[in-house]
Amino acid sequence: MTANLYQPINGEIVDVVDESPTIKSFVISPEREFQFKTGQFVELTLPGEGEAPFTPSSSPAVTEKMEITIMKAGRVTARLHECSQGQAVGIRGPYGNGYPVDDFAGKQVYIVGGGVGLAPIRSLFLTLVDRIKDFKSVVCRFGARTPEDFIYKNTLFGQWQKLDGVEMKLTVDQANGDWDGNVGVVTSILDPKDVDIANSVAVVCGPPVMMKFVTINLLEYGFAPDSIYLSMEKNMSCGVGKCGHCMLGKFYVCKDGPVFTYEQIKSYPNIWD
Amino acid sequence: METVFISKLNVLLDAVAQKMELYVPRKVESHYVFERYSVDSPPEPTFNDIRVCTPVKEFLFPLRELAAVFPEPQEPEKVEPFALFGLKACDLRSMEILDKVFAEEEFEDPLYLARREKMLVIASDCTEPGESCFCSVLEGKPYAENGYDLNVSAVEDGFIVEAGSPKGRSFVSAHAELFGDVPDALLAERDERRAEAQRRLEEANARFQLDAPLKEVVQERYESDVFDEEARTCVECQACTRVCPTCHCFYLYDTKQKDYFAKMKMWDSCMRVGYAEVAGGANPRKMLGDRLRHRLMHKFAYFLDRYGIEMCVGCGRCVDAEAGDVDIRVVLKKLNDELRDKDHEVVKAKK
Hints:
The structure holds two protein chains of two kinds. Chain A is an alpha/beta fold. Helix content of chain A is about 15%, strand content about 30%. The model of chain A has no long low-confidence stretch (mean pLDDT about 95). Chain B has helices at about 10-20, 55-60, 90-100, 110-120, 165-175, 185-205, 215-220, 225-230, 240-245, 290-305, 315-320, 330-350; strands at about 5, 20-30, 30-35, 65-70, 80-85, 120-125, 150-155, 160-165, 250-255, 260-265. Chain B is globular and about 65 Å long.
């Protein structure tokens, strides 16, 4: 008997962290060890309510717990936001390709993220930092709407900025309170001199409009289309390349992605919609 | 014994129905549906001249089914052997296409596979092309050459039954007493009838014949206004995808039962406006024309690239079902003519 593709394994929410006014992180303990590669995604079921795809934001080195950061955006995520510790959930996956971290070895990794797009990036960041000597450096450019909208504030404003081999700049669209950093969209803190472009890869994750303009900038700076890695957001339902919802041209984002190089998808129209 | 003769259809159907659930065609007004064959009160056997309206996917991948139960997983319901009589070459090709998706290595859908394995496929030759049949445009034939367990061809005074698989051969040898030998003259008659059906099919479809491979036609005319223009009358009824034997989009949804949770799998349609919309509101195919383009690109370019076969069999069910008069044959032909005219202009310009 073939294993049932649609059967979730059971899990439980063991902690909930308020990240921003619209974003929460859920620490989930699966009933058995759960392995994934950074950038892969899971289908998280709220029993009786629905299922939605999320990329874990935790390090794949941790297999007994998984963190998933969720923005309240639709029906299922709104119900998830009402959940607290002890809530039973289902998990299917992991699905998709994930970030090709080994291919980044010896290079500068230029990570550009915005909003809840920092969730997959956090998992990647933790993975890179674990073996930071394998990379020339990790250069981060992160943005949020306001200082309150940044997620992972504690580590983002503190510990992550001080790590060896990591260089980080933050920006907000609108400053308030005691924010003394850059104000402007994330492209305002990008500079072609940030990295040695010929020896770098770029990783972009954020709202579609941000990804679009960041990609345009990166191409102008001279990044090759196949060195720009994009995490595509689609409404993956089955996760296994059958149900059709996440099709992007000939690709199933769930199976061939969710990480694509710009080179792979540039010929399709509406990739940012 | 692979090719045999039987004079009465109900003798064959009775023998099948003794062993398993059997579904046979019944004519309702101008089209056919499948109905359960009862041995006790067998219906007058119908030899359907063209495909049954019901797409075969309904038997392999029902409109709605239970995909998973949790927190305590349940063994799926055991599938009993069943048979369909009256499947046509286009139906068999549709199963070949569905197999690519649901029997894909490493990603096998156990619900589909269980039914597929238990199914006895009894095909039959088409005798008269239907008004919407256009399989010949896709190099289809009005008779099956493979993919069946048994195939039935109507000839004068009876039927030629051919076994095409180990399952079919063992059925024929287990029921040897029902069958007679096939003289060469009857085989020749079958071939003549097949050739005649093919000729009529090609004649009926001459006006839809394309000048370039389908993939080239849709891909090269990707930017064409034809998609928007032809989608103008679409009323988004989604009948085209429901009745299509190769369309297989679905979605999973969750329900709460008395003492368990269930994940259900239900057909969906890429022609539906919210089909590709994400929770954040982005939707890559807001317009009907975009969705029609995607449907055709999926059928003739994307699926072909991925699985090496087009995701259309030319059965014409979508043409019959359309409430909004969108005719896939016409869309393809218009794209083809645009491409042909464009190529002519290029040739002229070079001169």
